[in-house]
Amino acid sequence: MRDTIRPEVQHYVQPGALYQWARRKEVAWESIPLLNLLAWFLRSRGWWNPLSPLPPVGGKPVLHAVEPDEQDVWMDIGERVGHTLVLGTTRVGKTRLAEIFIAQDIRRGDVVIVFDPKGDADLLRRVYAEAKRAGRAKDFYMFHLGFPESSARYNAIGNFSRIT
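The structure assignment produced for this chain is given below.
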């Protein structure tokens, strides 16, 4: 990675002038009649478009696929009962990893409780979509103080006199 920041190798790392031209034109032409068709073509991903946008891998692209002997990373299901610590800086994929774990647990039929103090709307949508795909939409409950009309309700002292 250190070598990729050297000025003499930037032409290998950065997209070329034609690619950058295509990205500028797809934005400039999107509201102009007829040219918006060309903008659509430039924006499309396919074997027929040599100027298609690069996939949104996030982070630093020079870090992706640098190991010639890559292999799948997996965790035995028996290990999932313990704690898992995921560390990383902002926008490196911690929540997306949580989405994968949550989706797998929902599909497996496990009870899933997600605490999200940041209130990530994409995470909420993904959890609901996975519950729906797994045929468990009726089991989906959301608790959110900001949206009481759609939130599940809990009264901590409402049934205080009952032992249960």
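Interim note for the steering committee: The CA atoms of residues 75 and 83 lie 12 Å apart. The first helix runs from residue 10 to 13.
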